[in-house]
Amino acid sequence: MKLDSPIFTDKDAARIHLEAQRWPNGPICPHCANSDQTRITSMKGKAHRPGLYNCLECRQQFTVTVGTVFERSKIALNKWLLATFLMTSSKKGMSAHQLHRMLGVTYKTAWFMAHRIREAMKEDVASSGPMGGEGKTIEADETYIGKRETPRKLARGRIANPTKSGKAGGAQKRIVVGLVERGGKARMFHLNDATKETVRDVLVRNADRASTLYTDSSRLYTRTGEEYASHKTTNHARGEYVRYEGAEVIHSNTIESVFSVFKRGMIGVYQHCGEAHLHRYLAEFDFRYNRRTALKVTDTERHDDLLSMIGGKRLTYRRIGEARYA
Ligand SMILES: [Zn+2]
Fold first, then answer.
1. CATH number for the domain that contains residue 183
2. Residue 286: inside a domain, yes or no?
């Protein structure tokens, strides 16, 4: 896919391409889920916009963007497709400033488009199920990024204070927990607080307990690790980053490298990220990692995959500022 493709320059070409990705077997009514092609008619003629369909089951009209993150946008579809292509094919993401310049839309519009696109990048964890399984290896780790906007509350209502040197330290940073299946997918989560309980909750909901688990020697994982088929650790405090046990290569370098791409993107491209939006940036980096070039996914395939995911995920101005923790 090149940037001079008609889907990026012509709104009808963009719509036809989007219809093909969302509806590989023909239009589906977003109001009543009717997919019987004999019960859906195309509204043709000068009086109607191209791409308008009529559902004979529920008697309502629809287009390909109804019920998607593109709904009720005044931005031409070809610009949406250019924005989605740029964001899905740039390894560290693309800033709203750059989208604003490249698309010729206002900064505010570009910012909101980018957040809607991130919302579309969110994997439906309920339908894709947990990662790992028998014979599979999951690496888990946590990382700290950026300053918290709300101080972390400790037990009995105390608040974690910055150190005397003025440095925030881990206590005043945002907490991200990440899981990755070796050779497979990654999922990162923003936690309000990292405790044995919150970390366990993320682990058991997202990583099959029949998996082998590798972590560092943090006490966050000790008890939960016992629930897994096997749990092995490397002791980073003692300078141990990899250990060999027979055929096993024990390390958590894979999840470290996922964090590393995320952090470089956040520092180099995004710089300012409100705490309320962090979950959406994490979804963006997961999306690209899970369709990385090393898995032989092309830029076109990654983009088309996103276009198939835009449904059922509307993002409004009202909802955009709500923080979501794992
Ligand atoms: Zn219908």
1. 3.30.420
2. no
Let me know if residue 108 belongs to a domain. Answer: no
Going from the Cα of 31 to the center of ligand 1, the distance in angstroms, rounded, reads: 5
CA 25–ligand 1 middle distance (angstroms): 16
Report residue 65 as tokens. 């963007």
Structural domain harbouring 218 = 129-250
Q: How many domains does the chain have?
A: 1
Q: pLDDT of the chain along its 326 residues, tens only?
A: 788 999 999 999 999 999 999 999 999 999 999 999 999 998 776 667 889 999 999 999 999 999 999 998 899 999 999 999 999 999 889 999 999 999 999 999 999 999 999 999 998 887 889 999 999 999 999 999 888 887 766 666 666 655 554 454 567 889 999 999 999 999 999 999 899 999 999 999 999 999 999 999 999 999 999 999 999 999 988 999 999 999 999 999 999 999 999 999 998 777 778 888 999 999 999 999 999 999 999 999 999 999 999 987 766 666 667 667 76
Assigned token pair, 127: 């339908």
Q: Is residue 192 part of a domain?
A: yes
Task: Provide φ and ψ at 249, rounded to 5°.
Answer: -115, 105
Ligand 1 center to residue 171 CA distance, Å? Answer: 51
Contacts of 221 (CB under 8 A, 6+ apart): 140, 199, 203, 213, 215, 231, 233
Predicted TM-score (pTM) of this structure: 0.90
